[in-house]
Amino acid sequence: NTAILWFRRDLRLADNPALHLALREAERLIPVFIWSPEEEGEWAPGGASRWWLHHSLADLAGELAKRGCPLVIRRGDSLAELRRLARETGAGGVFWNRLYEPAAIARDTRIKEALREDGLEAQSANSALLIEPWQIRTGGGDPYRVFTPYWKAAQALLPAGRLEPVPAALVPAAEPPQSLPLEALELLPRIAWAAAFPGRWQPGAGGARQRLERFAEDVVLDYSARRDQPAQDATSGLSPHLHFGDIGPRQVLMRMQRALAEDRGSGRIATTDHFLREIGWREFAHHLLFHFPRTPTEPLYDKFAAFPWRKPKDYAADLAAWQRGRTGVPIVDAGMRELWTTGIMHNRVRMIVASFLTKNLLIPWQEGAKWFWDTLVDADLANNTLGWQWTAGCGADAAPYFRVFNPVLQSQKFDPQGEYLRRWLPELAALPTDRLHMPGAQRPAIVDLAETRQRALDAYARIKGA
Ligand code: FAD
Fold it and tell me: What local confidence, expressed as pLDDT, does residue 88 receive?
């Protein structure tokens, strides 16, 4: 008999629990991907994500073809396509790995019920997280809103043991179902914008494995010392791979544990812990999104709903300057150009540009989150929401509102030689390093940093007692 394996954002065969669920129920497998962006509501994949998805799907299709079981590609209503495919092939069940975005949860719940009413088996599994969001509660039975106690509680629940091996061969449907060519999904941008992406990224499971290997062997040793320096290639670069499920967090955890078992040097223990803590932030972000599903658009803490942001007609020109890297504050402009050119921005610089947008420009964090959503290859609703709410000061574990990043000091501290600035603002390359960090080095700054810092503090003071 036959089972459908419904791929979504788990675009790999290794550590894919839905694959093993399906193979326990059936011999023949129909792997399918259904393009249905409307079902993700406001958060359909943005432009950079679509580029990644295209290439990651191509990689997955290649892996499946090698095992004799071609990927079926469809477009349209997910439930209707799954039903059609079950009818066409006589499949007895549908298996998939879970997602945690509110729209996806609602859709998947509806689909599971409908398929079961049809008399089909329908089961989901966890491929994306170390710990399910509902597995951890505070002593009082509530979800966590603070990271450190969350991660402490999580340590006791981390998965252990071995991952199931990838089958060398898979048995396809007796009659191959119809499939669209990948190009029919039109995921690649029509403009030349993504021209530099292929030089920077290799989407798919193979690219993810290579990154993880390089990181576990070598880069992690300097992670704590260099992770905050945007000019360095000192972090794992795994975020888009984790978002699309080219690789899963269990694979990352276990690879890091193996590296530790081989080398118990104290430096490696400390930096590995530090790195796994960042993986912990990803888990925490999903915990928050699951328990507070309104947070992609609304502040976690209600009193921030009254925050006196500027109005769209007043900030439109400043928002455009920020998006295009034309604010006149070099570290902000460098970051926004890195984002536009490569689909990624270093974490430290994300914090700087987000602070500049929300505090110095007093533009709502939701505008920044939307721009990131469209331009980041790692755009992830859980992580992006946490990052923006944290920086704006209205989310979980946020920095106190009175701590407004000074972009010049940040730039001097984390890019002391100006290497990052020169890379992304080549027109400034000839300036002496001390001038390079200063607003106005390249173009007049759109705001005065000290004045707008005070304006932000005054705005926060107005809601403080609320
Ligand atoms: P590493 O330092 O190697 O970390 C390993 C992994 O841990 C990352 O791949 C990521 O999955 C996770 N991680 C690290 N830092 C964080 C964090 N602060 N929050 C949640 N998970 C984290 N990350 C996204 O994946 N998608 C987003 O859309 C996103 N938007 C952000 C927006 C803002 C305003 C900020 C401040 C941060 C955002 N981040 C987002 C978090 C972080 O910047 C990236 O995860 C990180 O830069 C990815 O690089 P890396 O894979 O080399 O990270």
Answer: 96
455 Cβ contact partners less than 8 Å away, ≥ 6 residues apart: 362
Question: What is d(CA 250, CA 127) in angstroms, rounded to the nearest whole number?
Answer: 8
Q: How far is the CA of 39 from the centre of ligand 1 (A)?
A: 25
Q: What is the DSSP code string of 281-319?
A: HHHHHHHHHHH-TTTTTS-SSGGGGG--PPPHHHHHHHH
Ligand 1 centroid to Cα of residue 61, in Å, is 27
The H-or-E segment that residue 232 falls in is none
In whole angstroms, what is the distance from residue 456 CA to residue 365 CA?
13
Enzyme catalytic residues: 278, 281, 309, 347, 365, 388
Residue spans in the chain of domains classed CATH 3.40.50.620: 2-126
Length of the chain: 466
**pTM of the predicted model as reported, rounded to 2 decimal places:** 0.98
Q: Which tens digit of pLDDT belongs to each residue from 397-423?
A: 877 777 899 999 999 999 999 999 999
CATH code for the part of the protein at 2-126: 3.40.50.620
Q: Note whether ipTM > 0.85 here.
A: yes
* Protein fold of 129-163+204-291: 1.25.40
Q: Which residue has the tokens 């078992």?
A: 261
CATH class of 302-464: mainly alpha
Amino acid at 19: L
Pocket lining for ligand 1, CB < 6 angstroms: 227, 235-239, 242-243, 278-279, 281-282, 285, 347, 350-351, 354, 372, 376, 378-380, 383-384, 386-388, 391
DSSP string of 338-372, one letter each residue: HHHHHS---HHHHHHHHHIIIIIS---HHHHHHHH
Report the pLDDT value the prediction gives residue 466, as an integer from 0 to 100. Answer: 57
Residue extent(s) of CATH 1.10.579.10 domains in the chain: 302-464
Position 182: which residue type? L
Token pair 């940040």 is found at: 410
| CA–CA gap between residue 277 and residue 16 (Å, rounded) | 23
- Residue 230 to residue 420: CA distance in whole angstroms: 6
Quick check: helix, strand or coil at residue 443? coil
Atom 29 in ligand 1: which residue has the minimum CA distance?
384
Single-letter amino acid code for the residue at 435: R
pLDDT tens-place string over residues 145-184: 999 999 999 999 999 989 999 999 999 999 999 999 999 9
SS3 209: helix
